[in-house]
Fold this sequence. Notes:
The complex is a heterodimer of chains A (about 110) and B (about 120). Chain A is mostly beta strands. Chain A has strands spanning about 5, 10-15, 20-25, 30-40, 45-50, 55-60, 60-65, 70-75, 85-90, 100, 105-109. Helix content of chain A is about 0%, strand content about 55%. By secondary structure, chain B is mostly beta strands. In chain B, a hairpin with a 5-residue loop joins strand 5 and strand 6 (about 55-60). Chain B is globular and about 40 Å long. The chains are: A mainly beta (about 110), B mainly beta (about 120).
Amino acid sequence: QKEVEQDPGPLSVPEGAIVSLNCTYSNSAFQYFMWYRQYSRKGPELLMYTYSSGNKEDGRFTAQVDKSSKYISLFIRDSQPSDSATYLCAMSPDSKLTFGKGITLSVRP
Amino acid sequence: GAVVSQHPSRVICKSGTSVKIECRSLDFQATTMFWYRQFPKQSLMLMATSNEGSKATYEQGVEKDKFLINHASLTLSTLTVTSAHPEDSSFYICSARVGGGNEKLFFGSGTQLSVL
């Protein structure tokens, strides 16, 4: 079993939809959880960072962590075509990140 | 956020040649930089951790003699792919950390290496 599992998609939604992206993990030592957005052939940029169970909201983005289930989610409200990108979850016990494979999201106008 | 500059963005080379990729932190000092490799539709895989003034720490399965890392200053780390072969073709990305904390990790724009 891989340490981090992420549905590879791709995912296509209409503009305005609520998007739910998920990752599961197996390493109980993970305590830092991140979501990155990556445009084609570019480096990832940090969207959300959490280190505890619960929800964290930033504008249209909400990150959710459930440590008991080893499950994290990223919700995007009122999705826009500019949200079209690859989204990667990442997590770590300390400073070394383990990434999911990423899911490519396409928001149709 | 902080800016990490990576150069070149794309390189095509012949098999057997060596390629150097530079990673610079433009507006901060980075004591630690990380090098990743990403194959199409795959996750970023950490290759090595580069510490200023000391030897890099390589992940299991990464050949340190093939992927030479030098972190000679607080703003520059280089990755040299020696005697490149077609199987080394990949997207290489560096990142640098501002102080401690994973939220302060910033990525370069990546280098697409194609070995013919």
